[in-house]
Specification:
Strand content: 5-15%
Low-confidence stretches: 1-7
CATH topology of one domain: Arc Repressor Mutant, subunit A
Structural class: mainly alpha
CATH superfamily of one domain: Winged helix-like DNA-binding domain superfamily/Winged helix DNA-binding domain
Mean pLDDT: 87
Order of helices and strands: HHHHEHHEEHH
Shape: elongated
Length: 133
């Protein structure tokens, strides 16, 4: 254990990624629109672009397109093109994307238990005024 900790500490000094090994995961999964897109696909199943656009409020078509492409590139979403007239494109969450469900469930549980405490802490902080220094 001590050897692992020393190695991690030494690695963190030369590689910022090793300072927090979950940073790449956070960048992939928790970017602004990723979680609502994945949640919608997980909850409602395969959807067309317009359906996703309706369910993910306030996202622009350009940003939705960019996020879907990135999620497809990361292997979290599957895009299926149907060569019909007019063409039809559907998106669904992949098995890899679905494997995030326990993480999201755990975060939902944490939020239900702790967000009220965060809000109380914010209120106390704001009432005390900003720190001097």
């Amino acid at each position: 254990m001590a050897t692992e900790m020393n190695w991690s500490a030494a690695g963190a000094m030369t590689d910022p990624e090793q300072a927090c090994p979950i940073s790449p995961v956070v960048d992939i999964v928790f970017s602004r629109w990723t979680t609502p897109i994945l949640w919608s696909l997980h909850t409602f199943g395969r959807q067309r672009f317009v359906e996703l656009e309706r369910r993910v409020k306030n996202i622009t078509p350009k940003v939705l397109t960019q996020r879907l492409r990135q999620l497809e590139r990361d292997g979290l979403v599957i895009r299926t093109y149907h060569p019909e007239v007019p063409p039809r494109v559907e998106y669904e969450i992949s098995d890899l994307g679905r494997s995030l469900a326990p993480l999201f469930a755990h975060l939902t549980e944490w939020a239900a238990t702790n967000l009220q405490h965060v809000e109380q802490a914010r209120q106390r902080y704001d009432e005390a005024g900003s720190p001097r220094g």
